[in-house]
Write a structure and sequence with these properties.
A: 310 residues, alpha+beta, Rossmann fold, D-amino Acid Aminotransferase, Chain A, domain 1, 3 domains, six-stranded antiparallel β-sheet, four-stranded antiparallel β-sheet, 23% strand, B: 471 residues, alpha/beta, Aspartate Aminotransferase, domain 1, Aspartate Aminotransferase, domain 2, 2 domains, five-stranded antiparallel β-sheet, 15 strands, 41% helix, globular, disordered N terminus
Chain lengths: 310, 471
């Protein structure tokens, strides 16, 4: 089968996408497929039309690839593709929208407020920030609504940190959210075809849970898989993760990030197309379940309606 | 199943990674990757106007000259040029080096010179020779971003001394040395780029040069003077290098052909007192036996032509125009809350924004407008420099530079305006007038993340400060 691997693009997660893509290409070759590596640039549609692949493996992260744009194009072209569909991608990429959906479906997620730039520039929203302390309390986390990894995520310990954190977050998106900081264990549940893979726990090595950049650096955070959870904890975490996956309409595969607080799990976000690099969490979870990377790629193809092997 | 031989090895599985992790040396723990590295990966997109690199312009080097020289080498010295050479480098290369150093008033003993694989290797070899884990190494704040990974890989305790418009603050250096004294510690080296510093563009004043050299002499400390840009002066009077002031007892000198000829030939050098040189040569032997023989032959041929100084002058002329284009664009497009240095030479301008702007985040925003710069944090080991940026003017054409600055100015202005709206106050409470002399060494001491190690971003230069018009 001819499998196009879509990678790169203009998003800030371009580097991760290129690494995910390269690894997927290797696996597809080993599965005996004809691999067509495609950089997501101005020639993408033309090349898809010329080459007419049987299926597209979307190995793109962030805007353009994980937000439904590419998926929409593939639908128009009639090319089946891996991972979640247009609507699920559009919901997942936008943390604010995702949180509304989660709350609507009764999935626990930390309290938040969202603002867009216009609110501050034109409506004087700064005056409304005073209510934050009362409604969310400090510390709180400031995030761009659409953004990957730790970029632009800032921790505000007090009122004084908020304007600066907002300026940073607005560098990535014109909408940001201020979210109640939930203390607890950081967990990631990868979902493959509607079933949860073993839970991964991220433990910051240097004990600074407020340093968001550290979480993505090898050596500064250790990842434990499967996470050491009691049966009750594990059941609650997986239930919340699957509920989030369904609430956002995901299919194929995705990764749900959550915090396990004293009073139970709280879902932070869902990554529609999580990283597939050699340090990414989804492949790690699959491996803990006895699924090799090759089998994982094959299974993802099957979930897109294509045979795993050529 | 057989794989084509050129294919990338199948990627390691995560369990393998853990297995390798157990083998990594302790020093790799300080070699960090970070979110910023991902950002820098995006700056390499072809449609981006990059003011982030440190690339000299090699486009005006005459191809005919290049072809003629390489042909002559092939015809007359093929066997020698393809052979190993001495670890210290050829005497003929050293003669070229003496010519270059002579042009700046230095007359080292040829036996004190070693030819290295770029100036970068000289930094590495000197650290290899002098620095044990935990040793104090002193450098400027900000410092050359490419030196930071070297200090980190030798597990140095890197201490950065604030710079102002006259270069490293010697009073602060003295205070630091006093403090180290009371702790019973003696820094192994003081690393400085005194002329057209990378990244700040500033040049150390003559008075401070004298004080630094005296301080080194009286305390018997080694200063490492890295001088890639000294000959690229556009205005002002040349100042004597530290090496010349000291005579070479306590100053180790690093030079390079990268900015006066070509970075691609990877030819640099170090000059050190004989006991130090002896160890450096052993280190070099272990590292790569000798510097490329072929490119040493190229430099020898090129210098024999007697045109090298004219070529450097032509480069300086091109860079002067580009610097002026950048400074003009900064005055026109940057908001009054910004300040920047005005270099008299070199490759870089250092711009400082109000403290509430994090230039790593700003870079993400700027990349949406297809323009890039180096966030100031890359020039610090301790998370400072968050509101500064390094801007290169040697690599792009004048209109590209103007357009790049216009785009950056636009996103900066947006941030300033937004902060004003957020605080309901157009003025910046952090930055009273007159604070523009600050090189960006303000701000919270937080997570250290030395990161940029790409050679294109690694190489840099210096400039003096000046507040934006109307500020």
């Amino acid at each position: 089968m001819k499998v196009a691997v879509l990678k790169g693009g203009r998003s800030l997660e371009r580097g991760v996408s290129l690494r995910s893509g390269a690894r997927v290409e290797d696996a597809l070759e080993r599965l005996g497929h004809e691999v067509l590596p495609l950089e997501a640039d101005g020639e993408l549609v033309k090349r898809l039309l010329d080459e007419r692949p049987d299926v597209a493996f979307v190995a793109m992260h962030g805007r353009g690839g994980e937000d439904g744009t590419t998926q929409e194009l593939l639908e128009i072209l009639g090319i089946p593709f891996t991972g979640p569909g247009v609507a699920a991608c559009a919901r997942c990429i936008d943390k604010v929208l995702a949180k509304h959906e989660l709350r609507g479906a009764g999935v626990p997620t930390p309290d938040w407020f969202a603002f867009n730039e216009t609110a501050f520039r034109e409506l004087g929203a700064a005056d409304a920030l005073g209510g934050l302390e009362e409604r969310l309390g400090f510390p709180l986390v400031v995030k761009p609504s659409r953004g990957g990894s730790a970029l632009g995520v800032k921790f505000a310990e007090s009122w004084f940190d908020v304007p600066e954190a907002l300026v940073s977050a607005f560098s990535y998106d014109d909408r940001v959210l201020l979210e109640r900081f939930v203390e607890g264990r950081e967990l990631a549940v990868s979902v493959l075809g509607g079933e949860a893979l073993p839970v991964v726990e991220a433990i910051p090595r240097e004990g600074d849970s407020y340093d968001f950049e550290a979480r993505y650096e090898i050596g500064r955070t250790s990842f434990i898989c499967p996470a050491q959870l009691s049966e009750t904890e594990s059941a609650a975490v997986i239930e919340a993760a699957l509920a989030a996956y369904r609430a956002l309409g995901c299919s194929g595969f995705s990764r749900v990030d959550l915090i396990l607080a004293a009073d139970g799990p709280q879902v932070l976000e869902v990554n529609a197309i999580p990283g597939l690099t050699d340090t990414s969490l989804l492949p790690q979870a699959a491996e803990a379940a006895g699924i090799s990377f090759e089998d994982l790629v094959g299974r993802i193809l099957e979930l897109a309606g294509a045979p795993a092997r050529a | 199943m057989s794989e084509p031989p050129h294919r990338r090895r199948a990627h390691a599985r995560s369990s393998d990674l853990e297995r390798y992790a157990g083998l990594f040396a302790e020093r790799t723990r300080v070699m960090r990757s970070s979110a910023m590295r991902d950002l820098m990966a995006v700056t390499a997109r072809p449609d981006v106007i990059s003011l982030a690199g440190g690339l000299p312009d090699t486009s005006t080097f005459p191809p005919q000259t290049f072809a003629a020289q390489m042909t002559r080498i092939a015809q007359e010295s093929a066997a020698e040029a393809l052979q190993y050479g001495p670890t210290e480098g050829f005497r003929e290369t050293v003669d070229c080096i003496l010519e270059v150093m002579g042009a700046e008033g230095m007359l080292p003993d040829p036996d004190d010179v070693i030819v290295t694989t770029g100036g970068q290797q000289a930094i590495d070899l000197i650290c290899k020779t002098l620095v044990d884990p935990g040793d104090a190494v002193i450098c400027e704040a900000p410092t050359y971003p490419g030196a930071i990974p070297v200090f980190c890989s030798y597990q140095a305790d890197t201490i950065q001394i604030e710079c102002d418009s006259e270069g490293m603050r010697i009073d602060e250096l003295e205070a630091t040395l006093e403090r180290l004294d009371t702790e019973g510690r003696r820094p192994k080296l003081i690393y400085s780029v005194p002329t057209f510093q990378n990244p700040a563009g500033v040049t150390m004043s003559l008075e401070r040069r004298r004080r630094l050299v005296e301080l080194a002499r009286s305390r018997e400390l080694l200063v490492v003077e890295d001088n890639p840009y000294g000959l690229l002066r556009f205005s002002g009077e040349p100042l004597p290098p530290l090496y010349q002031l000291d005579g070479g007892d306590f100053v180790i000198y690093i030079g390079t052909f990268s900015k006066i000829l070509s970075p691609g030939i990877r030819l640099g050098w170090a000059v050190a007192p004989p006991p130090v040189m002896e160890k450096v040569v052993l280190g070099k032997q272990a590292a790569d036996l000798c510097t490329s023989t072929l490119t040493q032959y190229f430099v020898r041929e090129y210098f024999a032509g007697g045109i090298w100084q004219g070529y450097v002058e032509s480069l300086a002329e091109i860079y002067r125009g580009r610097r002026d284009a950048m400074l003009g664009a900064l005055r026109r497009y940057f908001p009054p809350q910004a300040s920047w240095t005005e270099p008299e030479g070199g490759l870089f301008v250092w711009a400082t924004l109000p403290p509430y702007i994090d230039t790593s985040d700003l870079l993400a925003k700027a990349l949406r407008d297809d323009v890039a710069f180096v966030p100031g944090q890359a020039a610090y080991v301790d998370g400072r420099g968050r509101n500064s940026m390094r801007l290169n003017f040697s690599a792009g054409k004048e209109d590209e530079i103007r357009e790049g600055i216009r785009r950056i100015g636009k996103v900066v202005a947006e941030q300033v305006e937004l902060y004003g709206a957020l605080t309901r106050d157009g003025t910046d409470p952090h930055m009273p007038a007159g604070e523009a002399e600050d090189m960006g060494g303000i701000d919270s001491p937080s997570n250290p993340s030395p990161s940029i190690s790409d050679s294109s971003e690694a190489d840099s230069t210096v400039i003096p400060f000046r507040k934006a018009e109307g500020a």
